[in-house]
Amino acid sequence: MQNIRIGLELRTLNNMIRRRCDFSSHKKKIQTITGNNGWIIGFLAENTGAGRSVYQKTIEEHFNITRAAASNALSLMEQKGLITRIADTQDGRRKKIVLTKKAEQLKELMKEDFDLFEATLTKGFSDEELRMLYGFFQKMKDNLQDK
Question: For residues 112-147, b (16+ Cβ closer than 10 Å) or e, as one string?
């Protein structure tokens, strides 16, 4: 087991995932959306669709990114017309992040791509194996947060 480099394997898998996302079946229709934008749009659609408000801090925590990285990504998405920021009715200093009509129209195409991608990625795994894999990923993330 000493020759197995989990970090290298995860990095290689991440590169493969990024490449695959760059060549989605609907890429021409959603050209302005980067892979990161797509994940954020999916997260926003899932949460706002369930009646939950999403703020920049929510995105920072969910994607484990810095404040600066989240701010930059959201600013670019706002410039592309994918999101708007609306003052929270209970705390005007906080801004809810909501999808624009443009992003709403694209989210179904993106969902098709993500669902197909997820099915490809998990093909051949049993439900138990997927639960175990998820647990291993959570343990690795916990290990990294301890340091």
Answer: ebbeeeeeeeeeeeeeeeeeeeeeeeeeeeeeeeee
